[in-house]
Amino acid sequence: MKLYYSPGACSLSPHIVANEAGLPLELVKVDLKTHKLDSGEDFFKINPKGYVPALQLDDGSMLTEGPAIVQYLADLKPETGLIPSAGFGRYKVAEWLTFINGEIHKNFGPLFGNASEDVKSDARDKVVKRFNYVNGELSGKQFLTGGTFTVADAYLFVMTTWAHHVKIDLPENLHKFFHAVSQRPAVHKAMAEEGLVKA
Ligand SMILES: N[C@@H](CCC(=O)N[C@@H](CS)C(=O)NCC(=O)O)C(=O)O
């Protein structure tokens, strides 16, 4: 399988999940400014949406949208517990993926772009509010759904790394979560493979 990624972008989440599951990936870097690969190939021809992550299966089929990709990867290795295979627990992970995608990830967009100061300030307030909510949910828990690391934790971790870039202080439980998750071997390996930390 090939993962189209950009270092430190939201594509780090499926990269972490693949490493946690022990699934081999061919990593293909995309320059998000030019939408080109290192080879010069136009990324829009590979994924017409033009954004990462995109996962190409060995039969050539393409899966996009981070929350869908991480569920697919986790389902390839159900024994890892990265997502419950069925039942209410599965929907709780889906609930977190949806919340992180729509309420946190999307609000980071203006903070990284050329938005007006008003738009940035509104987006920052929303990220801070959402982080405070997550902080409360992490009280007395190691991970979002309890004691097991799931695909939702991989996604949340990426959001905590972005907070540092835009100088948003993480509340206490989220800060502890960031440190604990960054020490997981699969997470460290993914970050090193993207050139974000030393191997
Ligand atoms: N809806 C997509 C959004 C992915 C997304 O926001 N990707 C960003 C990087 S984190 C990107 O590639 N932006 C470049 C672009 O939109 O051209 C998902 O949830 O996977």
Q: In brief, what are we looking at here?
A:
The chain contains eight helices and five strands, in the order E-H-E-E-H-E-E-H-H-H-H-H-H. It has helices at 12-21, 43-46, 66-76, 88-112, 117-137, 151-165, 172-182, 185-193, and strands at residues 2-5, 26-31, 36-37, 54-56, 62-64. A hairpin with a 4-residue loop joins strand 2 and strand 3 (36-37).
Annotation keywords:
199 residues, alpha+beta, Glutaredoxin, Glutathione S-transferase Yfyf (Class Pi), Chain A, domain 2, 2 domains, 5-stranded mixed sheet, 8 helices, 53% helix, binds glutathione
Report on the structure:
There is one protein chain. The protein is an alpha+beta fold and 199 residues long. The chain has two domains: 2-80, Glutaredoxin (3-Layer(aba) Sandwich); 88-186, Glutathione S-transferase Yfyf (Class Pi), Chain A, domain 2. The protein has eight helices and five strands. It has a five-stranded mixed β-sheet with strand order 3-2-1-4-5, with helices on one face. Strand 4 and strand 5 form a beta hairpin. Helix 1 (12-21) crosses helix 8, helix 4 (88-112) runs antiparallel to helix 5 (117-137) and helix 6 (151-165) packs across helix 7 (172-182). The longest helix is centred in the middle third of the chain and has 25 residues, at 88-112. It is globular. The model has no long low-confidence stretch (mean pLDDT 98). The structure holds glutathione (GSH).
